[in-house]
Amino acid sequence: MLASPETILGGLCLILVNLLLASTYRPEEDEDRETVKECVEGNRDAFNILVEKYYRRIYNLAYRFVGDQEEANDLAQDIFTAAYQNLKRFRGESKFSTWLFQIATNRGKNRFKYLKRRGYFANKGPSDGDEDREGLPRELPDSTSNPEDLLAGKEIQKIVQEAIDDLEPDHKEIVILRDIEGFSYEEIARMLNLPEGTTKSRLHRARMVVKEKLKKVLS
Amino acid sequence: MSECDQISGMFLELHEGSVDSETRSRCYDHMNECSCCREEFQWYSDAVKALAGLERVSPPRDFMVHLDRRLDAVSSRSWLDFLKDLTLTAPRMPLPAGMAALFCIVLIGYSLFRQPPVELARHSETPVSAEVATAEEGGKSIAPAPRRATITTMGGDGALAPAYYSSLSNPSTNLPRIPLTTPESGMSGAQAAHNLLPTVADRLGADNLTVVSSRPEEAQELLKRILPGLQGTVVREDLRPSARERLVRIIIPPDAYGSLTRALVDHGEIESGAGAGVDPPKPVQEQGNGILLYVRFVKPQ
């Protein structure tokens, strides 16, 4: 049934108001804006500057998703390649780093799901020296030069990484972004296109899972 | 939900210190008394600490070299990739151009929307039946209702109403032709045909009503409200809905015809026209104990 003229007029006014609001929206300040602009214009060196700035963090994030150096290397290369190919689609409405980590998170999650389907994490199994876990301290060690504590620290790291590997993909990405990479809730919500409340509740559930895993192993 | 469950649900806020002092006091008071919650919170804090304490993993030294090679391979794309990215090479449309385009689309849509509905196709050559000649109008040709009239009873033959209805169920049926001469103007059928095309309601019958209202949908709702008081019912609505014309098929008791027309006139939503004192014509369509009417609501031209 066709709408009345009043309805059409009302809809038109609503659209106009939204367009006006959108035109007044100012994107957040981005220190990489000029560099990104040069990349879009075809300056490859500008892109290398961005890679140099972010590749360590991206690699670390990739590693936390897949838990393996080789896979992490491949994933990180994929992430930067995707960013390079899609740079023209970057509108500048968010910071470049937010956009880059959004790509990284999506690709990391997809790679994790792919590897999990292929049984990659099941085949990995528990790390060597599992029997040594009986002697692990309950207290998580701080930085120390004691070799025994260092070893315990490394074991703890493996246990924590295994706990992360057991998480669901949605929980895993939240934990990596918040607890490992240190993004704020606002940035995470923007990256994942979620409300902040949902971000926090997912993080809480993910932490509880990690807590249970640690408790089970270390108790 | 037990208090322990409530406290454990707040571990995130407690750990990050984002709760108000009253809630924090309540939680810590509980944990002072409940060793389970206290231990769970300790484990929770340790887990978060362990996650934050994960060592950063360094990429291999040749990472940039390999990436460079990969980007070189990507840069040399085929013409298919260029076509795929063709839309990306176009500049972003500025806001005023987008608004102007949107306005044009809405204007075109509105213009199309405002076009009058398509009239029913002219019917077959079948002449009006002889029943018209024997109708109460004394054998004169029955003219279609004048277009500027307000509440009018329309001339026609009762046989047209069932013909119209049958045409609804069988669209291929042709309606009988209506003579288009008008007693007032004396125009021939051909002359009248240039000015006035017979509409749906023109074919409906002697006792059917046309109501001219600036708000036909409200008038239609009014009719539905007053019908129960007249012991009438709605049979079908909006047989041909459009912005300018609405049609309702109703059944009313034979003695309610005058009350119906008076109610429609007196309410004020509808312009007065023929007046309340119009004698109802003889009903030509009976339905059980009631008479069948088509009431047509149109907007003034």
Give a description of the structure.
The complex is a heterodimer of chains A (219) and B (301). Chain A is an all-alpha fold and 219 residues long. Helix content of chain A is 72%, strand content 0%. Chain A is built from ten helices and no strands. Helices cover 41% and strands 10% of the residues of chain B. In chain B, strands 1, 2, 3, 4, 5 and 6 form a six-stranded mixed β-sheet that branches. Chain B has twelve helices and six strands. Chain B has helices spanning 3-8, 11-16, 21-33, 35-52, 63-75, 79-84, 86-89, 95-114, 160-169, 189-195, 216-226, 257-266, and strands spanning 152-153, 209-212, 233-237, 245-252, 286-287, 290-298. The radius of gyration of chain B is 38 Å and the shape is flat. Chains A and B meet through helix 1, helix 3, helix 4, helix 7 and helix 8 of A and helix 4, helix 5 and helix 8 of B.
Short description:
Chain A is mainly alpha-helical.
Q: What is the strand and helix layout of this fold?
A:
The complex is a heterodimer of chains A (219) and B (301).
Chain A: H1 5-24, H2 33-40, H3 44-66, H4 69-85, H5 96-117, H6 120-124, H7 147-165, H8 169-180, H9 185-192, H10 196-218
Helix pairs in contact in A: 2-3, 3-4, 3-5, 4-5, 5-8, 5-9, 7-10, 8-10, 9-10
Chain B: H1 3-8, H2 11-16, H3 21-33, H4 35-52, H5 63-75, H6 79-84, H7 86-89, H8 95-114, E1 152-153, H9 160-169, H10 189-195, E2 209-212, H11 216-226, E3 233-237, E4 245-252, H12 257-266, E5 286-287, E6 290-298
Parallel strand pairs in B: 2-6
Antiparallel strand pairs in B: 1-2, 3-4, 4-6, 5-6
Helix pairs in contact in B: 3-4
CATH-assigned fold name of the largest domain in chain A: Rna Polymerase Sigma Factor, Chain: A
Number of DSSP strands of chain A? 0
Our count of domains of chain A comes out at 2
Helix content of chain B: 40-55%
CATH architectural arrangement of the largest domain in chain A: Orthogonal Bundle
Structural class by secondary-structure content of chain B: alpha+beta
Mean pLDDT of chain A: 82
- Could you describe the largest sheet of chain B, including whether it forms a barrel? 6 strands, mixed
Spell the H/E element sequence of chain A: HHHHHHHHHH
Characterize the overall form of chain B: flat
Q: Summarize model confidence as the mean pLDDT of chain B.
A: 68
Number of helices of chain A: 10
Overall outline of chain A: globular
Beta fraction of chain B: 5-15%
Oligomer type: heterodimer
Query: Over all CA atoms, what is the radius of gyration of chain B?
Result: 38 Å
Number of DSSP helices of chain B? 12
